[in-house]
Amino acid sequence: MWDLIAQNGAVLLDGLAVTLAISGAALLVGCPLGVFLARATLSGRPIAVATSGLYRSFWRGTPILVQLLIVFYLPAALGLTLVPTIAAIIGLSLNTAAFQSEIYRAGLVAVPAGQSEAARMLGLSRRAILLRIELPQAVRLMLPALVGEALTLIKNSSLVSVIAVTEITRRAQQIASATFRPLETYAIALIAYLAIAALLAGAGLLLERRLASAGRS
Amino acid sequence: MGTFLETYGGLFAAAFATTLTLTAAGLVVAALVALPLALGLRSQSWLIAVPARLYVELMRGAPLVILLFLAYYGGPSFGIVLDAETAGIAGLGLYGAGYFAEIYRAGLNAVPRGEIEAAAVLGLSRGQIFLHVRIPRAARLVLPPAIGQAINLLKESAVLSVITVPELTKVAGEVSNLTFSAIAPYLTAALLYWIAVEALARAGDAAERHLAVGKS
After folding, report:
1. Which of A134, B38, B119, B143 has the maximum number of C-beta atoms within 10 A of its C-beta?
2. What is the interface pTM, i.e. ipTM, of the complex?
3. pTM of the complete model
4. Measured between beta carbons, which residues in chain B are less than 8 angstroms from residue A182?
5. Residues 6+ away with beta carbon under 8 Å from B120
6. Would the CB atoms of B194 and A58 count as touching at under 8 Å?
7. B198/A190 Cβ within 8 A
8. Do B182 and A69 touch (CB under 8 A)?
9. B2-215 domain in CATH 1.10.3880.10?
10. What GO MF annotations does this protein's record show (chain B) (predicted)?
11. How far is CA A151 from the centre of its chain?
12. Are residues A66 and B186, on separate chains, in Cβ contact within 8 Å?
């Protein structure tokens, strides 16, 4: 195992960096999309509610692998070319937006309506109400679910290996077939995923504790 | 689209049936393996509780595709040679068990202490309390997350395509190679998954309402 790491460590680390970069990019792109969808659902306007509901239903109701394949092949069918990495980020973003919107919806609903009504009476703009009153409180409520979604996203990013993005799973596949040592190679990749999951979960707990104490003062 | 379905409809139907069968088999494995795991998670002895916790965290932190690669391509190093379907069911089942164990544990923990104590005062044995008080109460709490997890397994079963199991996603890929167009096959597959997921969700809602009636 150690010789395998010594020989391929750099390649695997490179793959790990791609995994983190793609997941991070998708999480960030999915965030405003998710907020937009959540606000559409809460708007009460029938068309907005139905459209965002249909969007969520599709992206949550079909396998992410199939979604990634569709996002990867659709531009080609329309005569466009899309770099696999970009297709991967788009696919993961559109998927996580659906899951994030559910988290934001629940978080926004949990902030008592009386507070935003009071803020409106005091003359705050809608934007100020969202940014200064609703979001800071909602973030605290949503954080555990968001950390969970980030973990899921990193696990899901393993599937972009199928569209030839050289993240860590793809790198492990290449090494496994070159060295004929699949057991050890995939075990190393597994440990890398578990380490990221543990780090992220730990960081989430730390941040939660921080926000909880900040909220009390 | 008409001729597409005429030509490949049978293939898709068979692949869809494979997806549903494999998911059901994986679900049974997951639900059963999770039972001793959940009891292990609640054990007073760390010799049992720690390995159970490690198993759950391993399954919840690992991407299914890596677990499948380990079982299917890494298994022979242990002398375990599985065909793709068996590796797929085992992978899906052992992966799902980690999630189901946590669902069971939460359900068992949520049964109010007072009910357990009342049953004990009434002279029920520990075994009777577990079977007749804890399990029925926990079942109602467990159902909604269990349905959610069943839906997840159905969606995750698409990953079995990467170890060559001829399920829906794999067959969609094969058809796209035949027709030199990927969109129609993958959209067909997506639609079938979507229908199955929605059906499962509706069935779950109906079951929940049914159990809720039993509350009185």
Report:
1. B38
2. 0.90
3. 0.90
4. 69-70, 73-74, 77
5. B129
6. yes
7. no
8. yes
9. no
10. transmembrane transporter activity
11. 8
12. yes
Alpha helices in chain A (DSSP H): 2-42, 46-61, 64-77, 84-110, 113-121, 126-128, 135-156, 168-179, 182-216
CB contact under 8 A, A66 and B65: no
How many beta-carbon contacts under 8 Å exist across A and B? 112
Within 13 A of A197's CA, how many CA atoms are on the CB side? 23
Which tokens is A40 given? 């559409």
Residue type for B70, please?
A: L
Q: What angle do CA A139, A145, A146 make, to 5 degrees?
A: 65
Distance CA A31, CA A116 (A): 22
**B65 closest CB neighbour out of A61, A70, A169:** A169
What is the C-alpha to C-alpha distance for residues B61 and A150, in angstroms, rounded to an integer?
11
Whole-angstrom Cα distance, residue A71 to residue A82?
Answer: 9
Mean pLDDT by 10 residues, chain B (216 residues): 80 96 97 95 93 95 95 88 93 96 91 87 89 84 93 97 95 90 91 96 89 60
Answer yes or no: are the C-beta atoms of B63 and A155 closer than 8 Å: yes
User: Per 3-state DSSP, what percentage of chain B is helix, strand, and coil (rounded to 5)?
Assistant: 85, 0, 15
Query: What is the C-alpha to C-alpha distance for residues A120 and B149, in angstroms, rounded to an integer?
Result: 41
Residue A114 CA from chain centroid, whole number: 31
Q: What is the DSSP string of B118-185?
A: HHHHTT--HHHHIIIIIHHHHHHHHHHHHHHHHHHHHHHGGGGGGGT--SHHHHHHHHHHHHT-SHHH
